[in-house]
Amino acid sequence: MKLLLHMCCGPCSTYPVQELLKEKFAIEGYYYNPNIHPIEEHTRRKENVEKLSCLTDIPVVYDDDFRQDEWEAMKDTGEARCHRCYSLRLEKTAGYAAENGYGAFTTTLLVSPYQKHALIKELGMFYAEKYGVEFVYRDFRPGFRQGQQMAKDMGLYRQKYCGCILSLNNK
Amino acid sequence: MKKLLILFGMIFSFITAFSAAAFAQQPINVIVNEKKINFPDAQPFIDSNNRTQTPVKFIAEELGADVSWNGEEKKATFVMGDITLVLYIGDINYTINGQVRQMDTSALLKDDRTYVPAKYVAEAFGAEVRWESSSKTVYVNMDKGDNNDNTAKDNDSTGTDNPADATDANNTEDTAQEPEGENNGTASGTPAVTLKTVKASMTYYNKYDRVYFALKGIKLANVGSTVTNYFTESYDTKNNKYTITLPASFPVCLAEEVFNINDSRVSTVEIRRNFKTYDTQIVISAKKQFKFFISYNEKLNQSEINLLTPAKDGELLVVIDAGHGGIDPGACYSNTYEKDLNLAIALKLEKLLKEKNIKTFMLRQDDTFVALYDRPYIANALNASLFISIHNNSIDNGKVSGTETLYYPEKDGDTSFTGEKFAKIIQDSLINKLKTVNRKTVERPLLVVLRYTKMPAALSEIGFLTSASDLKNLKSEAFQQKTAEALRDAIVKGLGQLQAEKKSAFAEPESEGSTFIE
């Protein structure tokens, strides 16, 4: 089945790509992370996804939408903010998958033990229903360290903060 | 031009250089084995990649490593026990016991001082490195016992926790050491490890003596007074298959592709990936055996894979080096470029030697830029008998004119045929034939083409572009022809001496005989 894999960054994509290939999915990547701030960081993560795409021979669609002002103005904190961040990505990915004939979608965010895993799963299911495509939920977290090692072997840049301007300031 | 141009259409990424280094507001403390290091003048700082940079000398001393610095190559070598660590200024690649690795920053020059990233140096020698952001302190602990695995630890943080806080430092380029000669491209500024994706192309040059593939935008090796390869190579001599392997961490990713060449030398060049390790291989399937030499041409930002056919033992081969070329014009005076005069004479010499059935190899046969170190290294790989470099002079004084020949000085009492002896023969021959002002032979031990050639080598400066009479001569076909004839005569003489030496070496049983060229 053709699966659209939302890629948050290169390092987080390594392990999920490996596992999904084992399951015989035909993967294509989707880079849509408009609230990775500042723009240099957004670009750097994108370049690392490009390298991963080249090394693994997985095609990736890039959407360069970038919104920093919106996030700087945001009053939400904690889970409410993360909710908006995940929703933004998952809705866009589900929508793109539906429009372009992918049978399913998922996200590399599911590999990180630092993310709100249950919330990602919940939102993935929600947008799957809304757009009529399958959400392939997998708990990739046991492979997080392995994935980070793969990233290291590939010479990928491994960031030290989650991504948005608030996470950067709070670090 | 039968230059076969292959567009690779491949995506690759490379490292861009940023000149701004970032400083933390507070000074940084470095504690090695619970002892605080005192930095009397140059202070450690946080670079733009969030890594702690420390003056090279102190970190080495505290760790107990010997450090040596090669200014020409901008290379720092650390030795402790059986571990050798080599870092280059401005290069993210480094080696531990010859194995290439990568860091996410690089050593750098700032205010004439060499700084190295503490983390990578310390970890190379098995130390543990920890960053405490509250006190801005780097802790280096050498007593980690058997933990010598510098790939195992994951959460490396010798950087600041808040890069947004850091302020831009002044540009350090102006005060960086000015390198001599060719390789000055990577030295400036502090490279941030930023991957870029651009299109690259491979060009195959197969028209002339020098046959090579040029791979744009990729640095496969660092070529200077020593050569460091950023790849591993293997050669299946039975099938004439030469394989270059780039590790997954290599900053450039080449797309898989097969190029059908099918000339008399090469069938295909194949770029393929190992999907287990994500290593990339460049496989050259040749039709005969070659000696491969891979260099990096800094000025053209391309790696060059040379396919060389060395002279067989006992076979005589003369390498002709027409000085300068391409983007490097050499001396320029009244619309005349030195590179053109050098080439005109070299081509005439080549023809004359061929008429005498003497085998030649032209380092360039047209207006091509050949990297400086490639000239001696290619000659060495070719197992050449003699090396002649053709140049012309210029000076800030129109009255100066004449011919001189440069050489690398031989050891006292060396009776073998050396570059110094070769230079004398050449100089005599040139003066006899050209009747120019005799500026004699000149010792020049630092010239790259003389210093790194393993065979007798000499460099002739035929005349001065800045002298009206010399320039008039140099531009005339007849004078160029006479110059070539004088050089040919000297080369014939030189080859004769080499052969005589070889004969006498065979006559004396205690002599090995095979090293007569060296």
Topology pattern of chain A, helix = H, strand = E: EHEHEHHEHEHH
Q: How many angstroms does the end-to-end distance of chain B come to?
A: 37 Å
Task: State the helicity of chain A in percent bands.
Answer: 40-55%
Q: If helices are DSSP runs of H or I spanning 4 or more residues, what is the number of helices of chain B? A: 8
Estimated structural class of chain B: alpha+beta
Helices of chain A, by number, come to 7
Percentage of β-strand residues of chain B? 35-45%
CATH architecture of chain A: 3-Layer(aba) Sandwich
The major pleated sheet of chain B works out as:
6 strands, mixed
Give the strand order of the largest sheet of chain A, numbering strands 1, 2, ... along the chain: 3-2-1-4-5
Largest interface: A-B, 22 and 32 residues
Mean pLDDT of chain A: 94
Look up the CATH topology of chain A. Rossmann fold
Tell me the total number of β-strands of chain A.
Answer: 5
* Multimer state: heterodimer
Average predicted local confidence, pLDDT of chain B? 81
Distance between the first and last residues' Cα of chain A = 39 Å
By DSSP, the count of extended strands of chain B is 37
Summarize it.
The complex is a heterodimer of chains A (171) and B (518). Chain A is α/β, with parallel strands linked by helices and 171 residues long.
Report on the architecture of this protein.
Chain B: GO terms for molecular function: N-acetylmuramoyl-L-alanine amidase activity. Chain B: One of its GO terms (biological process) is peptidoglycan catabolic process. Chain B: Keywords: Hydrolase, Signal. Chain B: Residues 1-24 form the signal peptide. Chain B: Residues 143-156 have a biased composition (Basic and acidic residues). Chain A: InterPro entries: QueH. The complex is a heterodimer of chains A (171) and B (518). Chain A is of the alpha/beta class and 171 residues long. Chain A has one domain: 3-Layer(aba) Sandwich (Rossmann fold). Helices cover 51% and strands 13% of the residues of chain A. Chain A has 7 helices and 5 strands; from the N terminus they run βαβαβααβαβαα. Chain A has helices at 10-22, 39-56, 69-72, 78-99, 117-131, 144-153, 165-170, and strands at residues 2-6, 26-32, 60-63, 104-107, 134-135. A 5-stranded parallel beta sheet of chain A has the order 3-2-1-4-5, sandwiched between helices. In chain A, helix 1 (10-22) links the parallel strand 1 and strand 2. In chain A, helix 1 runs parallel beside helix 2, helix 1 (10-22) packs across helix 6 and helix 4 (78-99) runs parallel beside helix 5 (117-131). The longest helix of chain A has 22 residues, at 78-99. The model of chain A has no long low-confidence stretch (mean pLDDT 94). Chain B folds into 3 domains: 4-14 and 195-308, Sandwich (Immunoglobulin-like); 20-188, Copper Amine Oxidase, Chain A, domain 1; 317-507, Zn-dependent exopeptidases (Aminopeptidase), CATH 3.40.630.40. Residues 1-25, 144-199 and 510-518 of chain B have low confidence and may be disordered. In chain B, 19% of the residues lie in helices and 35% in strands. Chain B has 518 residues and is of the alpha+beta class. Chain B is globular, with a radius of gyration of 26 Å. The longest helix of chain B is centred in the last third of the chain and has 31 residues, at 477-507. In chain B, a hairpin with a 2-residue loop joins strand 11 and strand 12. In chain B, the strands form 10 sheets. In chain B, strands 33-30-34-37-35-36 form a 6-stranded mixed beta sheet, sandwiched between helices. Chain B has a 5-stranded antiparallel beta sheet with strand order 1-19-20-29-28, covered by helices on one side. Chain A binds chain B through residues 43-44, 47-48, 50-51, 54-57, 145, 148-149, 152-155, 157, 160, 168-169, 171, and chain B through 11-13, 50, 102, 104, 151, 154, 157, 159, 161-162, 164, 193-197, 247-251, 253-256, 273, 275, 277-278, 280.
